[in-house]
């Protein structure tokens, strides 16, 4: 019903919240205003309008751009970015049910206190901000350069999360991942609150609001229905055991749709790159009916087990990412592998290590990638020296966030989530676009799912040619 209301509405106002009305006389672009004040909030909106008008408001070396802002310095605009904090911390941005009212109307109006402006101003502002960032004409501090995410980056992330659905139809599976910072008092609403945005998927999968079932049952049921709908294991890409406390009793193979936070870099990146890979030759999977709705029967092969693990990359300055990467290299050298032939026969471990740094993908900008080939090695070698003090052109280091290096007994190198451990097994499953790390339980052929994985050398097919090679496994 809410979907129909918002879609058919001629005008819609999104009431973001009230700012604190004070006696401060607004002084446009003054560095004296404080975040949270009326003058500060008005400056924040003024900055957003400037961004929407395609002004260059961030400068290298704090210089003034006399063409676009003749009397304003970097410091003025930096103060305005701090003032954006009070806008983006309003409760409206954290409620899952408010997503529909921003996405479904054709041109919603944003109201913040007495200020009104079109949502399209927000959209144009973040679009221009991204363009300037990628053109490198303006310096914007991003999350991995600082201890805390700057408010302007948070504003970009929150608006972009909405706009990706406003302008592009997203499947329900991605929508359930799109708004990790939104919350609901009833955890079932983390699913029900976005059903109207993927109406066709929800109907086809048979997912509808039903408050008679408990949250754990709902999450497991939703994951199973999405697997049935798409014929693949895409919900597995959203399983993160390393972040937060999962709901008690939730099966290991089921995403906890109530979790949110810093892992969004890891999760969003994986969702965009998973379609590049196809390690198996029989991709369609239909889960067989089972007696226990909290268990899932899958088929595939146990490819190998993990022999050694390395350090984990977390969101940090680029130089620290390289420090961790160097430790992975040291580990390969310590094991005596560096100058020996890699299992695929294409060069030594030293020749293949760059594939781990880029996670097998060449970055084209934003969320666009292409698969790396051995002909791209020179691109990587040219990029690596720029990383500690700059931003690489061809390597998206966010693909390494929350990734831990591992080596299997057969000698394959890979990356997976931080909670993998020695003895975990690498599986290739029908319906999976990546290998998966699983952990043995006390039952025969029974495992818990730990993580999706990147395993260099098996990501592009060639496995599971014959059905008789398949084994059956139960995930709990």
TrEMBL record:
InterPro entries (UniProt xref): HET (IPR010730), HetReg/Transcr_Mod (IPR052895)
> What is the annotated signal peptide range for this record?
none
Q: Where is the Heterokaryon incompatibility domain?
A: 1-101
Name of the protein in question? Heterokaryon incompatibility domain-containing protein
Organism the protein comes from? Fusarium kuroshium
What is the taxonomic lineage of the source species? Eukaryota, Fungi, Dikarya, Ascomycota, Pezizomycotina
């Amino acid at each position: 019903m809410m979907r129909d209301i918002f879609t058919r509405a001629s005008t819609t106002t999104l009431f973001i919240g009230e700012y604190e009305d004070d006696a401060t006389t607004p002084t446009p672009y003054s560095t004296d205003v404080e975040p949270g004040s009326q003058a500060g909030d008005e400056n924040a909106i003024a900055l957003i309008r400037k961004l929407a008008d395609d002004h260059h408001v961030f400068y290298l070396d704090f210089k003034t751009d006399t063409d676009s802002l003749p009397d304003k310095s970097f410091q003025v605009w930096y103060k305005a970015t701090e003032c954006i904090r009070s806008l983006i911390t309003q409760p409206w941005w954290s409620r899952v049910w408010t997503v529909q009212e921003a996405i479904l109307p054709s041109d919603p109006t944003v109201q913040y206190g007495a200020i009104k402006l079109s949502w399209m101003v927000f959209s144009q502002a973040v679009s221009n901000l991204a363009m300037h960032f990628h053109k490198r004409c303006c310096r914007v501090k991003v999350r991995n350069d600082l201890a805390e995410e700057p408010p302007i980056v948070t504003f970009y992330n929150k608006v972009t999360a909405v706009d990706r659905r406003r302008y592009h139809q997203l499947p329900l599976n991605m929508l359930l991942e799109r708004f990790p910072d939104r919350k609901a008092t009833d955890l079932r609403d983390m699913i029900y609150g976005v059903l109207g945005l993927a109406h066709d998927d929800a109907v086809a999968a048979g997912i509808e609001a039903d408050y008679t079932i408990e949250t754990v049952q709902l999450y497991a049921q939703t994951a199973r229905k999405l697997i049935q709908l798409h014929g693949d294991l895409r919900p597995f890409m959203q399983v993160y055991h390393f972040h937060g406390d999962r709901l008690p009793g939730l099966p290991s193979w089921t995403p906890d749709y109530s979790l949110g936070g810093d892992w969004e870099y890891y999760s969003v990146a994986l969702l965009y790159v998973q379609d590049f890979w196809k390690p198996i030759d029989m991709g369609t999977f239909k889960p067989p009916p089972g007696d226990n709705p909290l268990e899932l029967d899958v088929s595939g092969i146990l490819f190998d087990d993990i022999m050694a693990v390395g350090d984990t990359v977390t969101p940090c300055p680029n130089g620290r990412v390289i420090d961790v990467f160097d430790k992975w290299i040291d580990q390969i050298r310590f094991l005596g592998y560096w100058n020996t032939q890699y299992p695929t026969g294409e060069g030594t471990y030293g020749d293949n290590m760059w594939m781990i740094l880029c996670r097998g993908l060449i970055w084209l900008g934003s969320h666009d990638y292409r698969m790396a080939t051995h002909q791209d090695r020179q691109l990587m070698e040219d990029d690596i020296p720029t990383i500690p003090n700059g931003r690489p052109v061809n390597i998206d280091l966010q693909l390494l966030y929350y990734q831990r290096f591992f080596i299997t007994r057969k000698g394959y190198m890979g990356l997976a989530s931080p909670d993998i451990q020695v003895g975990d097994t690498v599986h290739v499953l029908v319906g999976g676009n990546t290998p998966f790390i699983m952990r043995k339980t006390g039952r025969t052929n029974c495992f818990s799912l730990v993580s999706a994985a990147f395993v260099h050398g098996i990501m592009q097919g060639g496995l599971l040619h014959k059905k008789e090679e398949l084994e059956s496994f139960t995930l709990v």
